[in-house]
Amino acid sequence: MTIELPEAMRAVRFHAEDRSLSLETVPVPRPGPGEVVVKVAACGICHSDLSQFDGHIPARFPAITPGHEASGTVAAVGEAVRHWNVGDRVVVAAGRACGNCQSCRLGGSIDDCEALEIMAFSYDGAWAEYVVTPAVSLIPVPDGVPMEQAAVLADAVSTPYGALETANLKMAESVGVWGLGGIGTHLVQLARVAGASPIIGLDPVAGVRERALKLGADFALDPLAEDTHDRIMEITGGRGLRAAFDCVGRTSTVAQANAAIGARGRVLLVGISGEPIELGREGTFLGRRHTVTGHLGYKMKHLAELVELVSRGRLDLTASVSAVLPLEEFAEGIRRLREHDGYPIRVLLRP
C-alpha cells in the first residue's frame, strides 16, 4: 500500500567533518521492498548519540540523521509488506540485519545477524519527521501506551532488559548497578520486576540515588565513598554480589564492580566509553571464577515483552520521560543531557 508522502521534511543532521549539528530540510524517504516509513511521534536523546558527536564512536558517513529511540505511526509500506497498515502505532527497533553475514545468508532473523547495523550510526535515524525501517524492525504499540514511553523502550529500557537475560539473572540474586542514568535507572526497575534481591544502586549524585530508591533499589550508595565496598559486603552478608552491571564503562567502575562480586559472580559491561578494562590480579580473578561479559542491544522479543509489561501496568515508565522538546530545540536537549541538568532519565524530541 502506498500513500501520498510529502516531498520534504525537517531532520537534524550530524556532519562528521566538523562534528556539527543542524536542522535541515531533506527528502522524505520512500519505502523499498519489505520496508516501512514511520511518521515519528517521539525520539530519545541517548549518550551513545553524544559518543558519535564527540568522536568516541567513529562516524561512518559524512552526514547522518541521529536518533535511535523512536515511536510513531506507519505512514507508508513497501512492496511485499502485508502485516502493517497505515496508521498502525509502532515502536521502531534500533537496528536492522546486515544481509551479508553468514547468519543472514543462511536465512537468519534480525536477532541472528552477526553484524547488526544500528540506526543513526549505519543508516539515518529518527531525529526527523519520518524514518524508513525494515518492516521486521517494528513492534505494535497498544492505544493505552503513551508514544513517549514507547520511544524510551527502544534502547533505554530494552538494552538493560536484554542485559538481564545475558546475565542469566535468577530470583533473589543480589544485584549492583553502577551508574543510575537512563540505562542504569531502568536496570534497577527491571531487576526488581525480575525478582532480584537485594538491589544496590551506585551513583555519586545524591538526588539520583534518592530517585533510584523510589524506583526499586533497596540501597543506594556513593561509589566514591571510602566504605562502599564494605557496605556492599555488609548488605550481602559477606558474600558479595551475584551480578554487577556497569552502566558507566570507566576503568574505575569496572574494577569496583569486579571487586564487589562474590565467588562465581558475574560482571556485565553495559556502559560504553573509550577507557581500558582492568580486572586486577589474574589469580584472584581465576580463583574466584569471575565472569565478565559485554552486552549490547536486545532482541525483538525483548521489545515486544516490554510493550506487554508497560501495557499491563507491570512496568511504570512515567518517570522515564524527563522532558519532551520540539525537534528544533535539539541543542537544548543535548545540553541538558551533557550537563546533567535535572539529571534526566530521557529527554525526547518531538518532530
Keywords:
six-stranded parallel sheet; 26% strand; alpha/beta; seven-stranded mixed sheet; Rossmann fold; 351 residues; Quinone Oxidoreductase, Chain A, domain 1
What does this structure look like?
The chain is an alpha/beta fold and 351 residues long. It folds into two domains: 202 residues, Medium-chain alcohol dehydrogenases, catalytic domain (Quinone Oxidoreductase, Chain A, domain 1); 127 residues, NAD(P)-binding Rossmann-like Domain (Rossmann fold). The chain contains ten helices and 18 strands. The strands form four sheets. Strands 3, 5, 6, 9, 10, 17 and 18 form a seven-stranded mixed beta sheet that branches. A six-stranded parallel beta sheet has the order 13-12-11-14-15-16, with helices on both faces. Strands 2-1-4 form a three-stranded antiparallel beta sheet, with no helix packed on it. Helix 5 links the parallel strand 12 and strand 13. Helix 3 packs across helix 4 and helix 3 crosses helix 9. The longest helix is centred in the middle third of the chain and has 20 residues. The protein is globular, with a radius of gyration of 20 Å.
